């Protein structure tokens, strides 16, 4: 860089003017640009003036005594950085002129000129999934030789491939290409960038597995469908959106039924198709969510749902399968005399068989003691439960089926015979039956010596022998309280139960897995009391 020296005859001031052409600065309309002052002029008492245009209108200045001041009658979007560089944001079309920076130190003045040049990416319309995309980074002609590098949008699960050149073409676009594209321009040791947003119109992938839901009459389910990116409805309309629909194909008869139709206009909404199931509700669409909301669950919603958007060039659609699980618990007559306790765990399971050729479905029913549901392999790996065989055996000896005993041990986490017994009794769904079973198995309860860990220590045959004395249940006799169960809660259907048992003339409280001595057991607050005959 060379400087020319001018000396004013009327004063001792010297003006140093750069003899080079204006420095090239690239910027994008709407973006931000920084024009650096000559950093070689380094002094705490420097005066900095920034001028705009050929007529050198003062825009902003820095005075060591007065601070930063705006030019007279200037309303601008310019500011100074901490180093007194000029910052313009947002860049406007009128800013693409020559800018001058004058710096004064004592009697010397340093002047440097800059010129803003355009870098732009012409806007492209929204692109349909699978179509081609072309982008161009245009740089206004200048004395610089710019080099362009493209940076694609940052989308999860998509490779970040950087490409060079003023133009870029992409075939078979996907969601990976939706978002903000950036072209970085390198020139004369400086860097500028321009950005543009590309909308790729597509629907999010369908769920890989069916949606499973249960049959309680009060439950509802959402059938998912959405746009793969955050695209305004105005953009979709500009791309030729003509409508959309939801349809349903039951697995039982394979006859497609229309559910909803898309109304396109100032208000975009799903409207219920006349004559369709009244349980499907229409709603206004304000974002990318196209789902069916709060569909009441029943046997009739089993099947395949199809969500589609229709454009002039193509139709996008996704399919979602819904399965309804149905289980019936047999709780029959109130008189449980002579009834096996395993009946409390009988379930009516409905199975579906689908013909691969016709896709018609047939439903069969069977009785089982446990409902088995499919579990994804990644969740099932190394998750096989380890059950306490001794606890399972003790439950089986009390008359419960093997599968029910294994289920009780599994859900109580191998906490011992007490926990599993409580679980079994709690899932009989009938207090009368539970009481009947207890009093019909008093001999078994008397032979159970429960330790603090909740596990039975009466494993040997000798320990299971009944105590001496008569076993009659009628006639005169004397009984003593040896255990009682207390309930804490608003009703018997909810809350918490604890048990007190008298062992060796000492009352012990059993509260889940916590076992300790009870000095003042609340005998008057019992929910269920246990007595045994006193042998004299």
TrEMBL record:
Q: Report whether Transferase shows up as a keyword of the record.
A: no
Any single GO BP term? protein deubiquitination
Name the Gene3D superfamilies on file. Cysteine proteinases, DNA helicase RuvA subunit, C-terminal domain, Immunoglobulins
In this chain the UBA domain maps to: 386-427
- Cited PANTHER family: T-CELL SURFACE GLYCOPROTEIN CD4
Q: Name one GO molecular function term.
A: cysteine-type deubiquitinase activity
Instruction: Note down the stretches annotated as region Disordered.
Output: 449-475
Record's protein name: Ubiquitin carboxyl-terminal hydrolase 5
Top-rank lineage group of the source organism: Eukaryota
Domain named USP: which ranges?
239-534
Q: Which organism is it from?
A: Anabarilius grahami
Q: Where is the Ig-like domain?
A: 130-197, 208-317
Give the record's keywords alphabetically: Hydrolase
CDD domains in UniProt: Ig (cd00096)
